[in-house]
């Protein structure tokens, strides 16, 4: 199934189910929001699947992805991993950092009260902050009990997402030195318009990994297409790590971290910082600039998630305004 959230002027929008070809949609009567569906998945899933069948039979209203919010416009938790070893190794080599001495997944808890839509302009305070994008896959869980094993964790994955985890690279090193994690360096993420159930991905979903190329372009120029199956830890292992000492509420989003492959010279990258690290290793200095206001970043992974297509803009006093509560 393919789910989306239409912008109705409220914080959480209206849940709809979208046809496979993304031409048609139906509202979900009795399940008003994505969070409501996740809170009561056992009740919601039969309703959603019945509507999906109706769409396949030719029913529905004309769908416009530009009217979508992020699938889950705000979430109880956003836990982002760093599960691609190549990305970490390149950054460590470029900046002369020692390897992180751990056999555990890397993960931090980020901002979750707002996720931007796939076509929303992305406001930043200053170009001097080192504006960067990060292409990631993510999963959304139902309620996960504390101590959930990796073996059981995949049963709690309800939806799969495509995410742009925006980052401010000039601020990140300052915050990392404090040992308290990121706040200013990690603004709101953007999410592609469709959240899909794992079964919709078919063979592209296995072993807790999204086995699809994530293609990124900057101002229309190809930047990279690394594949999501190179994770050292699958999403089931990331979920089990997050749930080691806490329950995870329905609506928890867990990210893969920057998608990165060992053959980066061929497949490219999904973030500027990695490209700059490769240039530093090769020539001693980075050449690729960070983003400027007006730059356009697009991301896509096949036809499943829709397209992230956004412009970087200067932040304004009104850029953080929220819709009315609904």
Task: Write a structural description.
- There is one protein chain.
- Helix content is 21%, strand content 24%.
- The protein has 326 residues and is of the alpha+beta class.
- The strands form 5 sheets. It has a 6-stranded mixed sheet with strand order 6-5-18-9-10-12, covered by helices on one side. A 5-stranded antiparallel sheet has the order 4-3-2-1-13.
- A hairpin with a 7-residue loop joins strand 19 (296-300) and strand 20.
- Helix 3 crosses helix 8 (272-283).
- It is globular, with a radius of gyration of 19 Å.
- 45% of the residues are buried.
Major sheet description: 6 strands, mixed
Q: If you average the pLDDT, what whole number results?
A: 93
Binned, the helix content reads: 10-25%
Low-pLDDT runs: none
H/E element order: EEEHHEEHEEEEHEEHEEEEEEHEHHEE
Radius of gyration: 19 Å
- What topology, given as strand order, has the largest sheet? 6-5-18-9-10-12
Q: Topology, pairings included?
A:
Blueprint: E1 2-6, E2 14-18, E3 24-27, H1 34-39, H2 41-56, E4 61-62, E5 77-81, H3 85-95, E6 107-109, E7 122-124, E8 131-132, E9 135-141, H4 150-153, E10 157-164, E11 167-168, H5 172-178, E12 190-191, E13 195-196, E14 205-206, E15 209-210, E16 215-218, E17 221-224, H6 235-242, E18 252-255, H7 264-267, H8 272-283, E19 296-300, E20 308-314
Parallel strand pairs: 5-18, 7-20
Antiparallel strand pairs: 1-2, 1-13, 2-3, 3-4, 5-6, 8-11, 9-10, 9-18, 10-12, 14-15, 16-17, 16-19, 19-20
């Amino acid at each position: 199934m393919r789910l989306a959230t239409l912008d109705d002027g409220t914080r959480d929008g209206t849940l709809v189910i979208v046809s496979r070809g993304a031409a048609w949609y139906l509202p979900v009567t009795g399940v008003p929001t994505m969070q409501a569906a996740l809170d009561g998945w056992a009740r919601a899933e039969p309703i959603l699947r019945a509507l999906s069948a109706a769409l396949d039979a030719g029913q529905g209203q004309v769908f416009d992805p530009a009217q979508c919010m992020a699938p889950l416009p705000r979430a109880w938790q956003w836990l982002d991993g760093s599960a691609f070893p190549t990305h970490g190794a390149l950054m460590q080599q470029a900046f002369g950092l020692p390897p992180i001495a751990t056999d555990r997944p890397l993960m931090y808890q980020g901002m979750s009260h707002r996720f931007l839509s796939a076509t929303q302009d992305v406001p930043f305070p200053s170009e001097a902050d080192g504006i960067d994008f990060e292409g990631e896959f993510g999963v959304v869980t139902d309620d996960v009990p504390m101590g959930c094993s990796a073996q059981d964790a995949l049963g709690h994955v309800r939806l799969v997402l495509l995410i742009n985890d925006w980052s401010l690279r000039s601020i990140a090193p300052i915050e990392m030195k404090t040992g308290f994690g990121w706040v200013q360096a990690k603004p709101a993420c953007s999410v592609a318009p469709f959240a899909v159930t794992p079964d919709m991905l078919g063979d592209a979903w296995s072993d807790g990994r999204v086995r699809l190329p994530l293609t990124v372009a900057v101002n229309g120029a190809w930047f990279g297409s690394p594949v999501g199956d190179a994770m050292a830890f699958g999403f089931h292992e990331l979920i089990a790590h997050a749930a080691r000492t806490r329950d995870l509420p329905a609506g928890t989003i867990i990210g893969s971290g920057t998608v990165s492959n060992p053959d980066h010279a061929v497949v490219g990258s999904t973030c500027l910082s990695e490209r700059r690290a490769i240039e530093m290793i090769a020539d001693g200095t980075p050449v690729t600039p960070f983003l400027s206001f007006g730059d356009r970043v697009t991301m896509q992974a096949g036809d499943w998630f829709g397209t992230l297509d956004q412009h970087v803009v200067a932040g304004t006093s009104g850029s953080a305004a929220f819709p009315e509560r609904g």
